[in-house]
Write a structure and sequence with these properties.
This protein is α+β, with helices and mostly antiparallel strands. The chain contains 2 helices and 7 strands, in the order H-H-E-E-E-E-E-E-E. The chain has a domain of 100 residues. The strands form 2 sheets. It has a 4-stranded mixed β-sheet, with helices on one face. Strands 2-3-4 form a 3-stranded antiparallel β-sheet, covered by helices on one side. The relative contact order is 0.12.
Length: 146
């Protein structure tokens, strides 16, 4: 009896009526939509950060390879006539294929349409750098790669 009296006095306040259920459903959908928007925005920023970190790691590993090659060539040149050493060049960089090139006293590594280079001391280099084991030898100031 008191319940009916309360419903009639307030008009809009109903306990267990369909109006309350609809309001709860709408509130839930709004809160859920806000949650989805927040998660989507967060995922976007996480994905961007992960992509930038991956690019930085690839660039870092590529620079290590370029510097190792250039460092060995410089060492062979500076040690003088008759010096010889092995240079092992990796087959892949960060799991990706790449190209090696020696042009005009510069070592170039090209990976994913980006080239990384470093100038080397010797300007007189004979032979071709290849992935795997290379033998570098100083022959009267000329670096011979075999």
């Amino acid at each position: 009896m008191n319940r009916k009296k309360l419903e009639s006095n307030t008009g809009w306040l109903r306990f267990g009526g369909s109006g309350a259920k609809a309001q709860v459903a709408i509130e839930f959908m709004v809160i859920f939509a806000i949650f989805l928007v927040a998660v989507t925005i967060s995922l976007f920023f996480v994905w961007e950060n992960a992509s930038e970190m991956n690019t930085a790691a690839i660039e870092s590993e590529t620079r290590v390879v370029v510097n190792a090659i250039a460092g060995k060539l410089d060492t062979v040149y500076l040690e003088g006539d008759g010096f010889s050493t092995n240079l092992t060049v990796p087959q892949l960089i960060s799991g990706m294929n790449y190209t090696l090139e020696l042009t005009a006293g510069t070592v170039w590594v090209t990976l994913e349409n980006r080239s990384y280079g470093r100038v080397v001391l010797p300007s007189n280099i004979s032979g071709t750098l290849r992935k795997g084991v290379n033998i570098l030898r100083n022959s009267n100031g000329m670096i011979v790669i075999s």
